[in-house]
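Troubleshooting: if your tokenizer reports a length mismatch, compare your output against this known-good record of 105 residues.
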Amino acid sequence: MDREEYVEAVLQAVESIPEGSVATYGDIAEYVGQGGPRQVGAIMREYGASVPWWRVIRASGVPADEVGDEQLHRLRSDGVRITNDRVNLRDVRWNPLAGSPGHHN
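Known-good structure output:
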């Protein structure tokens, strides 16, 4: 897929993350089937304002420095429990294969 298609696929994947769940940058790359966490992060920085960007988090569960406070605030508003400024991915990680309608690979 070309860059435009990739950007669209990443943004659609992020839009699919339900309220109360999070995905890692790597999860999104895997879901889309191309690129990696850095590519997804770059797309989110450039185009992510129109999607629920705060639901995409580092694999460590710690938000990116430049958006940390706002991201944690928005996640709390979504109902995600935050402990020591960290999301427990085990509890809230999005699994698109767990019966979500419209998933295609």
